[in-house]
Design a protein that fits this description.
Low-confidence stretches: 1-5
Radius of gyration: 14 Å
Structural class: alpha/beta
Mean pLDDT: 86
CATH architecture: 3-Layer(aba) Sandwich
Number of domains: 1
Number of strands: 4
Helix content: 25-40%
Strand content: 15-25%
CATH class: Alpha Beta
Strand order of the largest sheet: 2-1-3-4
Shape: globular
Largest sheet: 4 strands, parallel
Distance between the termini: 41 Å
Length: about 100
């Protein structure tokens, strides 16, 4: 089957402190026609978002210095319509009932 959908190079931010997971998510996004922008630290993500606008971000819940929920809230202040997908290497997620603002 040939995929005839028009591909865009829309940038998607990926924030995770595990480089191998960033590579995996980045490859999937590239295969789907997106341009992944990888950050392994929240401060790097904040710096990138000052220069570029994203419509979608994948954020690890457990990041150094700033948790994923806090990072998402900060990014949504800059881009209120930003779609956030939380990712985690942990088997349970006790914070799932706390929506980001």
């Amino acid at each position: 089957m040939i995929d005839t959908r028009k591909r865009t190079a829309e940038p998607v931010l990926v924030v995770d402190d595990d480089p191998s997971l960033c590579d995996l998510v980045g490859q999937v996004l590239e295969n789907e026609g997106y341009e992944p922008v990888i950050c392994t630290h929240p401060r790097d993500a904040l710096a990138v978002c000052e220069k570029e606008t994203f419509g979608l971000v994948f954020i690890d819940l457990n990041l150094p210095d700033m948790g994923g929920l806090e990072l998402a809230s900060t990014l949504k202040l800059q881009t209120p319509l930003l779609a956030v997908v939380y990712i985690s290497g942990y088997g349970t997620w006790t914070m799932r009932s706390r929506p980001s603002k």
